[in-house]
Amino acid sequence: MTDVVQKGMPGGDARHPRALDQTAAVLEVDDLVVEHRNRRTGEVFRAVDHVSLRIGAGESVAVVGESGSGKTTLAMAATGLGPRGDGDIRLLGHSLSSVGRKQLRKLRPEAQVVFQDPHGSLDPRQSVRSGLRELRTLQPERTSWIEDTDLLERVRLDPSILERYPHQLSGGQAQRVCIARALLMRPRLIVADEPTSGLDVSVQADVLALLQEIRATTGAALLMISHDLAVVRSVCDVVHVMHHGRVVESGPCETVFARPEHDYTRELLAAMPGARWRSRQ
Amino acid sequence: GGSEPGTAQSAGPFTVRALLAAQPATLDPIVGARSAQIVWATMLEPLINTDASLKPIDTGLLTSWTRTDATTWTFKVRPDISFSNGEKADAAAVANTLTLTRDTAASQLKSYFTNVVDIAAPDATTVVVKTKTSQYNFADLLTTVYLVPPKYYAEKGSAGFAAAPVGTGPYVWAGSNAGRDMSVKKNPSYWGPKKAINEGITFTWANEAAQRLALIQSKSVDVSFDLPPAQATTAKKAGITVTSTETAIKIIAFLDSTKAPFDDPKLREAAALAIDRDAIVKGIFDGQAVADAGLLNVSPGQKPAQSVSTDPAKAKELVGAAAPAVQIHYPAAQYTNIEEVSQAVGGALEKAGFKVTYVPIDYGTLVKRVVGRQVPGIAIFAGVPNVAVPDFFASGFMKAKSITGNCPDAQIDELSQKALEQTDAAAAAPIYEQLNTIGVVDKHCYVPLYRQVFNYATGPGVKGLVFGPLNTVDFTQTTH
Amino acid sequence: MTTSPVPVSEKSPPAKSAPPARGNRSGALRRAAARFAALLASLLIALSMAFMLGRLSGDPTTTILGPMATAEQREALRHELGLDRPLLVQYFDYLKGVFTGDLGNSLQFYQPNTSMIMDRLPFTLQLVAAGMALAILVGVPLGVLAARREGTWWDRAASTVALLGQSVPVFWFGMMLVVLFAVNLGWLPAGQSGTPAHLVLPALTMSVYPMAQIARLTRASMSEALAEPYIDAAKARGITGRRVVWRHAFKNAMMPILTIVVLQTGILLSGAVAVEYVYSWPGLGQLALQAIQFRDFPLVQAIVVFGALVFVLLNLLVDVIHSIVDPRVR
Amino acid sequence: MSQLELERTGAGTPRRARRTSVFWLALPIALVAVAVFLLPLTGLLPAAGQDLDATRQPPGFLAGGSWSHPLGTDKLGQDLFTQFIEAGRLTIMIGLVGAIVAIGPGTLLGLLAGYFRGWVDRVISVLIDAQLALPFILVALAIIANRGSSLPVLFLVLALTGWAVCARVTRSATMVIRERQFVLGLRAAGASELRIVFRHILPNLGGTIVALGTLQVGTAILIESALSFLGLGVVPPMNSWGSLLAAGQDELSTAWWIAFFPGFAVTVLVLLVNLLGDALLTNYDPRKRRR
Amino acid sequence: MTSLLHVSGLSISARLAAGQLRLLDGVDLEVGRGQIVGVVGESGSGKTTLARAVVGLLERNVTVESGAVELAGDVVVAPGVDRTGRIRGTAVGMVFQDASRSLNPLMKVRTQLGEVLRRHVRGITKADVERRSVEVLAQMRISDPARVLDSYPHQLSGGLRQRVAIGLAVVTRPSLVIADECTTALDVTTQTKVVGLFRTLVDELGIGLLFVTHDLMLASDLCDRIAVMSGGRVVEQGGVEDVLDRPQQDYTRRLLAAIPSWT
Ligand SMILES: Nc1ncnc2c1ncn2[C@@H]1O[C@H](COP(=O)(O)OP(=O)(O)OP(=O)(O)O)[C@@H](O)[C@H]1O
Ligand SMILES: Nc1ncnc2c1ncn2[C@@H]1O[C@H](COP(=O)(O)OP(=O)(O)OP(=O)(O)O)[C@@H](O)[C@H]1O
Ligand SMILES: [Mg+2]
Ligand SMILES: [Mg+2]
To answer: Which residues surround ligand 3, an ion (CB under 5 A)?
Structure first.
């Protein structure tokens, strides 16, 4: 797999502060604890409870679990976008708690996030083109590798989309623009937080396929967050099952889904709709 | 508490419902502003009474005053008079009031009494006052000093006294509803000849002139004071009795001769010639003010020997093409139509070729600036005499160390002093004429404009109210 | 901020059967304490501003002593009033006074400010209560009507009437009322206080602005509440008409309305200047105006302090009411 | 399907309907402004000078009036129509500048408080609460009583009394927008906080700010007229509708028209401005906007 | 199986500034007693519009152009006809998507149940209200009805809230229940429980259930019949097996193809 990474990665590693060991992890989370304090009541809520995980270069990893189990909190902490909590997070080997603010800003583009609500992820006052232009001014070297039109082609969007504003895009189109924006940054890690749950099933399949393809061609690692086991299974190699802030079970998808060890995983599998249909396949 | 205002009165015992322009501040005559005098003067009496022409007469608490030498005055106190609380209103009480007036920090009349060096009451009916320098009009000053009971005043203090004043007058305190009204009732054992023939008076107040008109129109009050010309006209049209009295309050434009542009006598003359006081009286006041060309003619009706009359053409000629800049300071909202008057003055100056800017400020600040000599150009404000003596204006406005000090001149200082040293008013009169001519006609430092006319309306059938030019009101003979 | 008149819909946090929380059980208490501390801080700042405003209102000595006074006399008075001391000393004296309930003495009335404020308070209270009652009685139905018929001509008419109330200069409206009802028609007294008839015009004038605010807020809040899914759900359960509007929607829409009512009351208590001026109403507003015209800075200061205190107390009241009405806040 | 798709994603038609209502509200305001600013240039207005021989003339449409002074004359014999027009100019100017001076600092503080939260928010919120706790009319009166009335002081008062409300609204609007995920996306792309605040949050608040500003114009005009009524407004020889109204107040029983027209003009103008502000606010309300 | 709900040729359109917009276009649908009919289709296909039309809760700008809705043989909705006021809460119950928002947050569960009962059961006693409230919650498989009755909605978990909402819809024993995406906001595990609850309710009470969802898989697990909607039309309907095994329409086929495979 490391081979694929090297080939697929445009531009090599020169842009990194230090050249990375190819077998090194893109993201390492060590014994992470994140707590939210409710502003109104002052109550403290532990959303992520002693979680550790590791994503190697080019890997695709999923986190599943029910609503409120801490998946988003984990992802935001891991990319340095949300509250960082206690415990060590290393993005490309840099510990997020020890890097300075400036360095963090440099490091962040390495991890790009695709969110659930595609419209909410785009500035409503910016056309697609000016949004891309802004990214280019923010990261001139990183983004010079591709033209706007080519970029849109890679996410299978028509160049005419460039002049549109977010509210003039359908959900699927908007989500593809979000993916294009992430792609432009040539990230080493793409975090997709329920990227398809706001979309219709027919569109969902396209988006998933696109994410897969990008991972294959650029070699970026993928951290997929979802509550839909079928989606996870069709996209990811490794899965972590979260429950009440803890990772209760991890392993390769095949193993976990075929022989679930934990009660909760079993419950999840049993609750998956479509048993009747699958039984007829 | 007082009686309910707003309820119509019919025959029988009659309480006068009087409407003032503002809530009287404190009713303590020593520190209180003179505007509240209308209320406290029903209960308290001045040491010396005045006649219709504002001259002291012997019908009041003091029955005689003699000048034993140039700086010593001896007064006789009317015997056997008591305050309504039983205290004796004797010479000691008079001496106490004079001392309070001179020594209290916040005394309103303090500055008039700086000349007093000694006050003594050798017996129950005699008071002897010594002044530093000779002062022929000292007795006049006592027409505005109101007698307070020494023990009661000392006991209660200023605030306590103001909450329930005690005096020798025809009425006694009846109570108040805070912020709403104040009442006095008749004093059955009043010593004087003019006992009240009504039951008492309830004072209320309304800041807005339109209100004061509306309230008299709706018969909510029996007398409504202080109606500006517009309201007075309306009231008359509506068939309401309006009484107009020419007052001693004078509106004057003061030109600062010590600073540009009016350090130039030519420009002062131009300004004096440009302003048309008759047009102001007619146009702005609808005739309800009295054009007045003199400065030291204190009593209503009195005219100066010499004066300046309008000549816009000459004014323009004097100014020439230089277009000097002039600031006009005036106390916003302090006197009736003062904004319009100031603008009329400004308009006239502009026509003559001046460039005018207006500085409306509140009264307190204006006084402070005037006193601090920070008013280049023109200051317009009123001279409000407490007593009808020319020295009030001479010392107040003409001497180098006066309030305005806008016309410093050794000759003026000398003449003012000389006038005071005369034996009586008649002897002083020619000197004041001379002063007036210097200030107004020769040097053009003062442009007197007009005297205010005070209007009040009385309800149907209400009569017997007497209003004096110095803001004194006699309610005792008021009936319905 | 709970006092925001802009309704901010807050989604209730999902309830957890057994959250892995190092929970803070006394959340409500903590929140109350934090809120109280914030209000106290605001109050302290407001008090400091009041102090500065007091100093701002200018040198009182000329107004008190008149133009004839000499510089020495003025200086003596300044000394007597304590104005010649260092500002910081004055400030701490003032704070001490405020916290011991002593708001100083008026320069013009020679009386304790507190007692004067208390004397005037009943009148202003009367006016505010009558005006507020009127505002609520007209504003709430008007707003509900507009919300129920959102987008129709009814709505537009009701909303425009309400907005008109927010657009008319209050004192001008008062003047016109006087001209019409007192001078020309002679139906009602033109001003002053005493009988209930005296209250009619001032209360009417007073009610215009809060009425407009209440109507507009009611409309906004009600239209939001009426769009909530639980309203449709209630309808689907067969619950009809008035009950849905008042019991379900209005109760939910009430909080912002209540907030604005309480806070407006606070503002009117100290800010009824124009109305009281027009009608010679012997309330706090008149007193304030007089104080300012006379440079009676201790009185100005005292009224401002009083207003700030009332406002803060009413803020707390809003919080308390909120926690009573809305179980989610408890 | 295609028509449904369009409806679901396209710019909603209701929004366009609201746009037209904005236009129809802005039109009369623009007309008033144009009239007030252009009429003096035409030279058609009666001369503005004083004429103490012709004071207090009734308007042309009343008995005894003449059409050479369409609205009559004042106590100085100046033409009221000319004054009315020129006062309108100052009134509109005061409204605009008064709104800007309140909106500027208010927006900035609200933006910072809403975006950065934490202690910045706490400090600013306490300031807002403190400002709101002070009875604004007394604050205004006290300041003017000391500083004297002049335009700069008036604007200071308008700024002081207006910023808190603006800050509060901006703060809560900012808090809504900062939760949108594009903010996280920008951060992930390495954008600095200030860039996010000023290049993204601020433009998104633009509509709200314009609407707030519009409403503030109305408020400023009302406050100015109230201050003028109490004798603390603009300085002569300048006139605003508020000061004309104040001048006419004691002539109300004899010459009602002096106070009536400016008061009426203020009401209508403020009503129009408020209607416009309301329309804009609904137009830009992030909660009401279709995404 | 007797027909309970009969929708025939229902066309509905919305009035917009730009003109009329057709939301439903000649929809035919039938639900029998003891039957669960699933309505599936992607976002915007008109599912909610159909559901709301049956209970007469269409928005102000939406009108019925043609066709009719009959309930137990009576026409309740037709152009210019709306008799749904009488059937709402009695003959028809409805469960909405977001349970946490379809309960009044300021009222205890007890009050909300009592309100519905008192409205629809004439002269019901206090004791009866209590008894039936407890009963219906028990029916919803809620283990401690007393506590739930005394709770405000925000004090309950999502699953409990949705069960209370269903309880509110069935407490007056309607013959037809309409559920619009009533499990979308729930976790998969909770969803399974709620869906199971519906199955037992239908079996026990013999009611008809119109189950609206965008999840074809979920519908296929639960329903007896399925109607597939697209662009305001029912493009295909029939028994679950028929639709899944032998999709007649392209559209249905595409839907099925888009589902991630589980192998
Ligand atoms: N900013 C916050 N303040 C307080 N609590 C929060 C905050 N963000 C999240 N939480 C709480 O933390 C818990 C975990 O939230 P998180 O968003 O990580 O869950 P999730 O697994 O992503 O859920 P979902 O599937 O619904 O997206 C939830 O209970 C949530 O209420
Ligand atoms: N009142 C209305 N005015 C205008 N258009 C409307 C109205 N109600 C619904 N629509 C439109 O009708 C179409 C169908 O809406 P509907 O809510 O029935 O779809 P749905 O199938 O329930 O979708 P979803 O799965 O997203 O809930 C949508 O495009 C919607 O925008
Ligand atoms: Mg999440
Ligand atoms: Mg729907």
So the answer is: A 72
> Strand B289-291 to strand B446-458: parallel, antiparallel, or no bridges (unpaired)?
antiparallel
Domain that holds residue A162: 5-278
* Among B195-204, B468-477, C243-252, the range of highest mean pLDDT: B195-204
D34 CB neighbour count, 10 Å cutoff: 10
ipTM > 0.85, yes or no: no
Q: With a cut of 60, say whether residue B127 has pLDDT above it.
A: yes
Query: Can you name the residues that pair with A246 across neighbouring β-strands?
Result: A243
How many CA atoms within 13 Å lie on the side-chain side of A133?
7
pLDDT (0 to 100) of residue B152: 95
The total domain count for chain A is 1
Any contact of B with E, at least 3 CB pairs below 8 A? no
Using DSSP bridges, classify how beta strands B15-20 and B72-77 pair: parallel, antiparallel or unpaired. unpaired
Q: What spacing in Å lies between the alpha carbon of E196 and ligand 4's midpoint? A: 22
Q: Provide the Cα torsion C313, C317, C323, C324; round to 10°.
A: 150
> Which residues in chain B are contacts of C175 at CB distance < 8 A?
210
Assess contact for C51 and D130: CB atoms under 8 A.
no
Residue A162 tokens read as 């460039």
DSSP lists the bridge partners of residue B250 as: B383, B451
Tokens of residue A132, six digits: 């891309």
Residues in C touching B213 (Cβ below 8 Å): 183
Q: Does D157 touch chain B (CB under 8 A)?
A: no
* Alpha carbon distance C275, C205 (integer Å): 7
* Whether residue B192 has pLDDT greater than 90: no
CB B475 within 8 A of CB B201: yes
**Tell me, what's the pLDDT at C325?**
79
Q: Which residue has the higher pLDDT, C271 or A61?
A: A61
Q: Which residues of chain D have pLDDT under 50?
A: 1-15, 286-291
Query: What separation in angstroms does the CA of C111 have from each of B158, C63, C190, D231?
Result: 9, 17, 30, 27
Mean predicted confidence (pLDDT) in B52-71 = 88
Tell whether ligand 2 has an atom less than 6 A from the beta carbon of residue E98.
no
Greatest mean pLDDT among A128-132, B257-261, B468-472 lies in A128-132
Give Cβ neighbours of residue A194 (< 8 Å, ≥ 6 apart). Answer: A115, A116, A225, A226, A227
Please report, for the domain that includes residue A166, its CATH number: 3.40.50.300
* Chains in contact with B, counting 3 or more C-beta pairs less than 8 Å apart as contact: C, D
Question: Tokens 């070729």 identify what position?
Answer: B353
CB atoms within 10 A of CB D44: 7
pLDDT at B85: 92
